[in-house]
Design a protein that fits this description.
GO molecular function: serine-type endopeptidase activity
CATH architecture of the largest domain: Beta Barrel
Strand content: 25-35%
Number of domains: 2
Protein name: Trypsin-like peptidase domain-containing protein
Order of helices and strands: HHEEEHEEEEEEEEEEHE
Strand order of the largest sheet: 5-4-1-2-3-7-6-14
Pfam families: Trypsin_2
InterPro entries: Peptidase_S1_PA, Peptidase_S1_PA_chymotrypsin, Peptidase_S1C
Helix content: 10-25%
Shape: globular
Length: about 240
């Protein structure tokens, strides 16, 4: 067995231990959007990518905060610009909403036009009426093991933060979101980080954060799967608001 396959097997076992009801993670709350990551201290704000004239890193300008106002509920998440009017985030961040609120790094609130999600992976697309400040672009393929990554998002719906780490390998999807394998990194994420972009050293998207555990691991929807779904016109279907 190769070292990489051995590492992936060990990681899968560790994830199963952390998520398999052994008392390591806190009890699952009723709100799905808050159950994917543990409550741990948020990482410190850092700089990533090229600075723009206003002194904000390009990697931070492309991230957005997503607030889901549901029918009697309120949850928060993150997202990033796919193009000038499209935000990528997680399905669990936007489902069950009566109103979605998207805001940029400078506090600008952008109106949402449509929301669609995929049933194959924990992904959603949010169309906006106004242009987004920065589009990071997608990498050419999934990141190799030991690739440095930076996660940019809004943990707990608060300040914009970045968290750095490396790609550790691939593991079976720990949350059974219809993916065979997902990418695992040691970049720390917390509640509200769901939907954040994971960027390579060139500031290109290599995956989408959708989960984390209390061991400091973050789990990514692979870029290859995101690209495959974006190429399929039937992959994303409109989400109905809650009643």
């Amino acid at each position: 067995m190769s070292p990489s396959r051995g590492r992936a097997g060990a990681l899968a076992a560790a994830v199963a231990l952390a998520l398999g009801g052994c008392g390591v993670l806190p009890a699952m709350p009723e709100e799905l959007a808050q159950s994917y990551v543990p409550e741990v201290p948020a990482p410190q704000v850092g700089s990533s990518g090229s600075l723009t004239p206003d002194g904000v890193a390009a990697a931070e300008r492309m991230a957005v905060r997503v607030r889901n106002v549901g029918c009697g509920t309120l949850s928060v998440g993150s997202g990033f610009a796919l193009d000038e009017h499209t935000v990528v985030t997680n399905r669990h961040v936007v489902e069950g909403s009566s109103e979605l609120q998207v805001s940029t790094y400078d506090g600008n609130d952008i109106d949402v036009v449509t929301v669609a999600s995929s049933s194959v992976a924990d992904l959603a697309l949010v169309r906006t009426s106004e242009p987004l400040p920065q589009v990071p672009g997608l990498a050419e393929g999934d990141p190799a093991n030991d690739t440095p990554v930076t996660v940019v998002g809004y943990p707990s719906g608060g300040a914009l933060t970045t968290s750095s780490g490396t790609v550790l390998g691939r593991v079976p999807d720990p949350l059974s979101m219809g993916m065979d394998e997902v990418i695992v990194t040691d970049a720390q994420v917390v509640g509200g980080s769901s939907g954040s972009a994971a960027l390579d050293e060139d500031g290109r998207v290599v995956g989408v954060v959708y989960a984390g555990d209390d061991k400091g691991h973050s789990f990514l929807v692979p870029l290859s799967l995101l690209a495959e779904l974006l190429a399929d016109e039937s992959a994303f279907v409109p989400l109905e608001p809650c009643r």
